[in-house]
Amino acid sequence: MHKFLFIIFCVISINTSAQKIFGTVYNDKGDLLPYSSVTIKGTTIGASANNRAKFSITVSPGTYTMVCQHIGYTTKEVTMTISGEDKEAFFVLSEQKLVMKEVVVKSNSEDPAYEIIRQAIKKRPYYAKQVTGFECDLYTKDMIKFKRFPKKILGQKIDNEEMILDTLGQGIIYLGETVSKIAAKQPDKFKMVVKSSRISGSNSFGFSFPTFISFYQSNIAVFSEKLNPRGFVSPLADGAIGFYKFKYLGSFFENGKEINSIRVTPKRNYEPLFSGIINITDGDWRIHSVDLKLTKKSQLEIVDTLQITQFHVPVEGDIWRIKNQLIHFDFAQLGINAAGNFVNVYSNYNINPTFKKGFFDEVVVKYDSGVNKKTKAYWDTIRPVPLEKEEINDYQVKDSIFEARKDSVWDKQTVDSLKRKQGKIKPLKIFWSGIDRVHYSKKGKYNWGINSLIKDLEYNPAEGVVVQAKGYYEKHLKRSSTNLSVLPNIRYGTNNTHLNAWVEVNLRTRDFNKEDSKLKRHSWNFSGGKRVTQFNKESPITPFINSLGTLLYGNNHMKTYENWFSSITYIKRYESGLRFNVNVLYEDRMPLNNTTKFTLFKKDSVNITPNYPYEKINVQFEKHQSFSVGVSVSFKPGQRYIQFPERKMPIGSKYPTLTLSYAKGIKNILGSDVDYDKWKFTINDDKNFKLAGTLRYKIGVGGFLNRNAVYIQDYQHFNGNRSVAAGEYVNSFQLAPYYLNSTVANIYGVAHLDHHFNGLITNKIPLFNRLGWNMVAGTNTFYVNQDNNYVELFVGLENIIKIFRVDFVAGYTNGKQGTTGIRIGFGGLVGGNVGNGSGGSGDRMILSF
Fold first, then answer.
1. Residue 65's pLDDT band (boundaries 50, 70, 90)?
2. Are 318 and 346 in contact (CB under 8 A)?
3. φ, ψ for residue 114, nearest 5 deg
4. CA–CA separation, 136 and 130 (whole Å)
5. Nearest to 703, CA basis, from 721, 669, 677
6. Contact call for residues 475 and 441 (beta carbons, < 8 A)
7. Which of 24, 297, 356, 543 could bridge to 269 as Cys pair (CB 3.0-4.6 Å)?
8. Nearest partner of 760 among 826, 691, 827, 829, judged by Cα
9. Helices (runs of H) and strands (runs of E) counted in the chain
10. In what order do the strands lie in the sheet with 37-40?
11. What DSSP character marks residue 692?
């Protein structure tokens, strides 16, 4: 009986201590005002209206004054008393009537907005550093939906069944909410603890970026550097008057404070600039609110438009912080029409708190262990942005499907359904598209497949037409948190009739120890058999390019040899950013000579060169054995992480990657004939200079400590390139020969500098700025001695149809006039500098006070 009364008392307490003030925001014409800000006066507690202008705030019994704001409308206050039940409030906002100050009009006089902006620019550093640190609560609701999704993209049929779209290709594809605790400290300390997260139709953790966008910073990054690696210039940046035109629209009063409303317009198109409204308080020149927009003419990539709306409120004394933030984007490309809203509501600011020693560590974002286990009732209670009708429906439908699938995973009905959906195996696919399958059973699943036989065809003068069969088998071993992959390979040369077969087995393990919060990742690789290998083990020449060059022009640059081999590699990665790699390799190396001179044009057959590095050695090498041990240690200081309940994900560092490698050829082990010691040290990184562009670099030094018995396979090779297809950027020399400069010198140096201007120059050139083409320039160089050195300079354009990059390159050997050429590669938004080996540190997380 007592327990029953206690439960009744708890229910009554909950019902009487947590009520809601809910309602809708209209303008005086009866139109809805979406995403209005609603705040309890004197606090930072509040909400944001949703897309249907509805809001909801959970409160305890008491009397409250509600403040409603919307940019362009007069602020309105409503006082309500809450005693024991929810209450509804309607806000009707009238259009903001701006008052123009009296000004003396003179010839050549400037708009009053410029003096206001100058004062705000002077105060910008003060407000950027006004607080040494703070804490606050953050609620986010992120939603992305398709307004139209085509049945085909670039001729390829798209299966949109999993996205649950209607017949018009419309529907929500991502809906998520998070509740977090934010902590920040000057100059760059930041930590987010995600308390709860809910993703429609999933038990994943979602995301909640960007956390803060501060217009008190001169350069502003939004979401990812992919939107624009240069960032965007704030209207309050030190040089803003050189970038923007400002127009004074008038002022209005709020709580006795005069607010100046200013229109912001870029002076030039195709600069990373905002347009819209910024409201500045008079006298203290702080940001009151903003409504600013980015478009394609702002050098915005990926999306077509992106709008940022913010409201700032006083939180303590004269300290103002962001209360509500809305980011809206539109995307319309390739027949896809999509839009998204990212709503952030900040509350409970604690200014200049005392943080425990070690509070700010390498973990920047941490998800609590029960982050995705909150009930629907919990979310209905704490949510400061009411769900819209389509969002409620999305949760109901997708969560039901997810639960049904989760509860019935691997039962016979589910297995049979998945098998039917995958269809039957079509053996003829092995010739062109290849076969990729998932095997389903009650015990789980595994993946297997066979590559396309036709796409893997090669041609070279040593083997003739090469037929290859490559397969794969992948399975996750749940008990040991290990991924197993097996990669068998069979290679047959139709002209030399040699059959080569080898297999590679990989075991990759990822463990996260909850007790010490340590992430442990390590992998083993075992491989062996008989194979064909390039003399330069970095394989700078792709088989496809070499096949074309040989058939069309007789240029067989790829030099290869056969070898029976056995290899064991162990890789260990530490969460500190340290990576340790050990490899033991045995090879029985056999020469592989040319057996044919066939080309499509007979006159080119005379150009076919021997199948060994003839630039460096006069005759084919003799059969020999090699046993070597290689050790490599790389370290990226300052690595930061997102910590999930059972794993960590690195998100980069502002420091470069340092790598030291050492290889030793050991004589007499398993008949080994080699005897050498060589080393190499490199430093590489991406350095973003914002408006000035991004520099990718790789600088190294190395040499041989011992060269008693060194065969051509073990020389230090510099990755040359003789094809119009660009070699690996920041790791190769676009015009250099492949083996002419190979060396066993005591010491050598190498440098690759690749600067991407990201529109700094081309945005001022008509047509180029419209096309979004960007300039790139740099140099590749190595130095062994005065008789063996090479320098090349290049300048080019990238982001051509978002994919390609074209460079004009001039190369100079030993300080003498060299050659020039054109190189075409991948470089741009979609191309993503594929294969550039830039060793970048990833997208930076943005922290703005």
1. very high
2. no
3. -65, -40
4. 16
5. 677
6. no
7. 297
8. 691
9. 8, 42
10. 46-48, 37-40, 62-69, 76-82
11. G
Q: How many CA atoms lie within 13 A of 615 on its CB side?
A: 14
Q: Identify the pLDDT of residue 323.
A: 94
Spatial neighbors of 324 by CB under 8 A, at least 6 apart, are: 35, 37, 46, 48, 309, 310, 311, 343, 344, 345, 346
Amino acid identity, residue 200?
S
Strands (E), 317-371: 319-333, 336-351, 363-367
Would you report the helix, strand and coil content of the chain in percent, each value rounded to 5?
15, 50, 40
> Token digits for 558?
């790829």
* The two structure tokens encoding residue 750: 């190498």
Q: Which of 341, 343, 225 is nearest to 693 (CA)?
A: 225
How confident is the model over 304-312, as a mean pLDDT? 95
> Mean pLDDT score of the chain, rounded to an integer?
88
Length of the chain: 849
Torsion of CA 603, 606, 607, 611, to 10 degrees: 140
Query: In the structure encoding, which two tokens stand for residue 38, read together?
Result: 């609603």
Distance CA 219, CA 214 (A): 9
Query: Is the distance from CB of 474 to CB of 483 less than 8 angstroms?
Result: yes
Kind of pairing, strands 189-199 and 305-316? Answer: unpaired
Closest CA to 267 of 772, 764, 762: 764
For the chain, report the end-to-end CA distance as a whole number of angstroms: 55
Map residue 412 onto helix, strand or coil.
helix
16 CB contacts (<8 Å, ≥6 apart)? 61, 84
Phi and psi torsions of 225, nearest 5°? -65, -15
- What tokens does 804 get? 């390609």
Q: How many CB atoms lie within 10 A of CB 659?
A: 20
Q: What are phi and psi of 498, to 5 degrees?
A: -90, 135
For 548, the 3-state DSSP assignment is helix
Provide the token pair at 9: 């008392």
Alpha helices (runs of H) in 295-388, residue ranges in sequence order? 376-382
Q: What is the mean pLDDT of residues 517-544?
A: 89
Do residues 666 and 585 lie in contact, with contact meaning Cβ atoms separated by under 8 Å?
A: no
Residue type, 214: S
For residues 173 and 145, the answer to whether their CB atoms sit within 8 Å is yes
